Amino acid sequence: MTAPADTPPVYIDYLNRFDIDQLGFADADILGAVEDALRMQGLGETVIEPRTHIRPKAGVEGHFNVLRGWIGGEVDSAGTKVVGDFVDNYRDGRPSEYGLLTLFDPRTGSPKALIDATGITEMRTGAMTALGAKYLGPDKPKVLGHIGARGTAYWNVRLLCHLFDFDEVRVHSRRKESREAFAETLRRDLGREIIVTDDWQSCLDGADVMVEASRLSEPTPLLKTPWIKPGALVIPYGTMSAVELNLTDIMDKVVMDDWGQAHGIFGALREHVDQGKLTAETLHAELGQIVAGVKPGRESAEETILFWHRGLALSDIALGHAMLARSKERGLGQRLRFY
């Protein structure tokens, strides 16, 4: 089929991982893009669709997440991200999460960009973790305990350390070689000491900010509720739950990035939702509402707070849009004729 001669042409901007590496996005750039998207979400200037999953019957441990949304304002883009979650990829030296972000013009439906979202996924997840701590964490947290060493783990720690002057940063993961390599990378990039622990309890017990980003093959309650001290912030977001069912019982507030993502087949608080321990009525707020000033965040040093983030297409779209704008300024990427 031949398009009419007077049909407007459509071009797609393509950014691969090498283009993104040359953009020079600073920590503040990443946090700013994601925080702006959260504020717009809190003000109702976005659309988010619940994530869906593709589970191939290929005899491997992995699945695809499909995230969809739209952001208005200056971004004014609809987008879809498909990102894999294949936990055994490390055996081949591959990232666990390959991702592809597609941006569309919401006024015509035409595609605008294809962007490697492997790095975007890691950056925006770390930004969500850090921004959760900014609005929900203790005023001056001294100890960070982080479980997990692959994928999004690096940006969690890096962006948290950008916002806070921790006395201690503790890390742990299942494989000794993984956690040691992770700590060495953080020492090099952050210029600070990183404590490597041999077990979950010594990593998390008594920490002011506790992040659980484990890569479990099945739900296993490895994070024990008694380790959580009053006034702490707990951020569990592993695909498979690593927390106990009584976790929500000790919380003064439970916050999510988006309640619409609470249902499905994966997630740290999957069982809590299924059993009615976490509902739309017991949820304190979505983080975007707090960023926008619609609802309060932390209100006292004594509050123990849980922040569960599932990952938002809005963060991917906002960060992808910001990267696309800078790539045009610097002449990076490729332009492809689509129509």
Would you list the SSEs in sequence order as H and E? EHHEEEEEHEHEHEHEEEHEHEHE
Level-2 CATH architecture of the largest domain: 3-Layer(aba) Sandwich
- Uncertain runs with pLDDT below 50, 5 residues or more? none
Strand segment count: 15
Spatial order of strands in the largest sheet: 9-8-7-10-11-14-12-13
What separation lies between the terminal Cα atoms? 12 Å
3D shape: globular
Radius of gyration: 20 Å
CATH topology of the largest domain: Rossmann fold
Class derived from helix and strand content: alpha/beta
The average pLDDT is 94
Q: Treating each run of at least 4 consecutive H or I residues as one helix, how many helices?
A: 9
The figure for the number of domains is 2
What's the CATH H-level homologous superfamily of the largest domain?
A: NAD(P)-binding Rossmann-like Domain
* CATH class term of the largest domain: Alpha Beta
**Secondary structure: helix percent:** 25-40%
What summary fits the major beta sheet? 8 strands, parallel
Pfam families: OCD_Mu_crystall (PF02423)
InterPro entries: NAD(P)-bd_dom_sf, ODC_Mu_crystall, ODC_N
Protein name: Ornithine cyclodeaminase family protein
What does this structure look like?
The protein has 339 residues and is α/β, with parallel strands linked by helices. It has helices spanning 17-21, 27-42, 118-136, 153-163, 176-190, 200-204, 270-274, 287-291, 313-330; strands at 11-15, 46-54, 62-71, 77-86, 99-104, 111-116, 143-147, 168-172, 195-196, 209-212, 233-236, 253-256, 285-286, 305-308, 334-337. An 8-stranded parallel β-sheet has the order 9-8-7-10-11-14-12-13. It has a 7-stranded mixed β-sheet with strand order 2-3-4-5-6-1-15. The chain is globular and about 70 Å long. The relative contact order is 0.20. The mean pLDDT is 94.
